[in-house]
Amino acid sequence: GMTIEFTVRVPAGGAARCVLRARSYDGAEVGRRTVTVTAPPGSTTAEGRVPVATTARASHGDVLRCLPPG
Fold first, then answer.
1. Taking Cα atoms as reference points, which of 61, 53, 52, 63 lies closest to residue 9?
2. N or C: at which end does the chain have fewer Cβ atoms within 10 angstroms?
3. Which residues pair with 58 in a beta bridge?
4. 52, 1 contact by CB (below 8 A)
5. Nearest CA among 6, 2, 3 for reference residue 48
């Protein structure tokens, strides 16, 4: 597995549902996880540090997309 760290801009105190993806050295997807991150009250930045289980050794992770929760 690997841990993906990311920051996403949201409305003040808001949240986002993000799809994270772990990829191998050749670019193949080896793990995926959807998480919801919430900004502190008054803040427009939500930060995540999320472990993603992988089926093979991962070289990097990225955020596929973030959407409003719900």
1. 63
2. C
3. none
4. yes
5. 6
Reported as a single tens digit per residue, the pLDDT across 37-64 is 999 999 999 999 999 999 999 999 999 9
Cα 48 from Cα 19, distance rounded (Å): 12
Residue-level pLDDT at 70 = 79
β-bridge mates for residue 65, sequence order: 19
What pTM was computed for the model?
0.90
Q: How many CB atoms lie within 10 A of CB 54?
A: 18
Secondary structure letter of residue 1 according to DSSP: -
Q: How far apart are CA 40 and CA 59, in angstroms?
A: 31
